[in-house]
């Protein structure tokens, strides 16, 4: 009986491992998205960034695609790239500086998560007034987290 259970578990593990590897390669659709990104399609660059961030769990490559998307004015690419940089950097690091630029570009274009993230970054730098300014801006765009943070800091 225990050999049968062991064989079943082994087969399930093999199926799970082989399934995850099937997603990792450049299939036909992924190859088309990569080519579209290379041709300047910002949405394809963002999709490739998400693929590398989520499926491959390769933030370095994901960041390259998010930068391309951001450079091509795909603001969600700026937000996601900024988050990766913010998470990997430290106070006053090159990553934080680039993160700020990406967040600022997206915030100025109306991307409320980037305004919220600028508030968080500013707060972590010890700039409470600036943090409140960005949280307030995010709140005006409908970001409830920004409203809560602004209210808490403005006391």
What can you see in these coordinates?
With 155 residues, this protein is mostly helical. The longest helix has 23 residues, at 2-24. The chain has a single domain (28-153), classed as Tetratricopeptide repeat domain (Serine Threonine Protein Phosphatase 5, Tetratricopeptide repeat, Alpha Horseshoe). Helix content is 81%, strand content 0%. The model is unreliable at 18-24 (pLDDT under 50). The radius of gyration is 20 Å and the shape is globular.
Q: Which residue ranges are poorly predicted, with pLDDT under 50 across at least 5 consecutive positions?
A: 18-24
Question: Radius of gyration over alpha carbons?
Answer: 20 Å
**What's the CATH class, please?**
Mainly Alpha
Separate helix tally: 9
**Overall CATH architecture:** Alpha Horseshoe
Into how many domains do the coordinates divide? 1
The helicity comes to over 70%
Mean pLDDT, nearest integer? 88
CATH superfamily: Tetratricopeptide repeat domain
Helix/strand-derived category reads: mainly alpha
The CATH topology corresponds to Serine Threonine Protein Phosphatase 5, Tetratricopeptide repeat
Q: List the secondary-structure elements in sequence, H or E.
A: HHHHHHHHH
> Mind describing the biggest β-sheet?
none
Name the overall outline: globular
Beta-strand segment tally: 0
